[in-house]
Amino acid sequence: MKQFKHIISRLSRVALAAAAIALLTPAMSAQSDKSLKLHSENGLFNHLSVGVQTGLTGFGVDVAMPVHRLVTLRAGIAGNAFGDIKFKAINTGSEITNVQLVEDDAIKQSKMVDKVELALKPRFWNFFVMAEVHPFPTPFYFAAGLFAGSRNFLHFRNTNDGALQFLYDANQKVSDYNALFHTNYPPVGVKFGDYVFTADENYNIDVKMKTWAVKPYLGIGFGQSMARHHRLSVAVDAGLMFWGAPKFMLNNEKEIKSTQKGSGVTHLISWFKAYPLLQIRLAYKIF
User: Fold this and answer.
1) Counting runs of H as helices and runs of E as strands, what totals does the chain give?
2) CB of 121 within 8 A of CB of 86?
């Protein structure tokens, strides 16, 4: 009799456990289905994430959404807002040795200053559209897109506004001398590698390093811009932004020619037709 009661008691406990599992299973299943639908469903524009990024393009924000089960589309804006970088550049007027030129008052004034302080102003902002293709069941992906926006990659300007009349006057004197005596003395200004930046009529150095306005991009990445099973995701990608051979331009849009072709900064610029990028992105999936 006792054994029978023991069996009945065990069966009752099993029955209660089975009933509890039966009651909980639909709720768990519904929650799982909801999570699956929210985070893993493939489709067109059915998810959206917002992200922030940092890297060699500067800081940026973007939005991303799937356009295919293998392709995610991103669009946003990125750029840099670093402070000015100050440095001193050699005044080429101080290097003039021609006797006739040295006797001129404008050249004498120029030779009194050895170096001029310039401020390098990084100001480079671009809108971008990027497609990420995930062809393999791994975190690796290919990226291709376009950056469009600022042509000015770097801006050079003297720190003491309107203080370079001595450079302007000296350069005018050398230009007149070359025209009169058919000589070929280089312009007077400040040196940046193989380039000489001359002062404008406002007595300032105002030079921009310019690139293409529209810049194609190709790269590879690791991670996800659109997480499948989580809200947060991290991705790192590296590639090349093709922007043409940069040119140094005066504020009147006149190109500055190098004083020594095929060497130094000129040689570097000649093959620097693509800007290498490395970016880290943190994204949050809204839905």
Assistant:
1) 5, 15
2) no
In the numeric block, the tokens 């929210």 are attached to: 38
Please classify residue 141 by burial: count the beta carbons closer than 10 Å to its beta carbon, then call 0-12 exposed, 13-18 middle and 19+ buried.
buried
Q: What angle do CA 131, 282, 213 make, to 5 degrees?
A: 45
Q: Fold for domain 43-285?
A: Porin (2.40.160)
What distance in Å separates the CA atoms of residue 140 and residue 237, rounded to the nearest whole number? 9
pLDDT of the chain, 287 residues: tens digit per residue: 444 344 445 434 544 443 443 344 444 334 344 433 333 455 577 889 999 999 988 999 999 999 888 899 999 999 987 778 999 999 999 999 888 898 899 999 999 999 999 999 888 999 999 999 988 888 899 999 999 999 999 999 999 999 999 999 999 999 999 999 999 999 999 999 889 999 999 999 999 999 999 999 999 999 987 777 788 999 999 999 999 988 999 988 899 988 766 556 665 666 778 999 999 999 999 98
- Alpha-carbon distance of 86 to 96, in angstroms, equals 25
112, containing H or E segment? none
Extents of the domains making up the chain: 1-40, 43-285
Cα-based torsion angle of the residue sequence 157, 162, 163, 166 in order, rounded to the nearest 10 degrees: 100
Closest CA to 236 of 140, 144, 146: 140
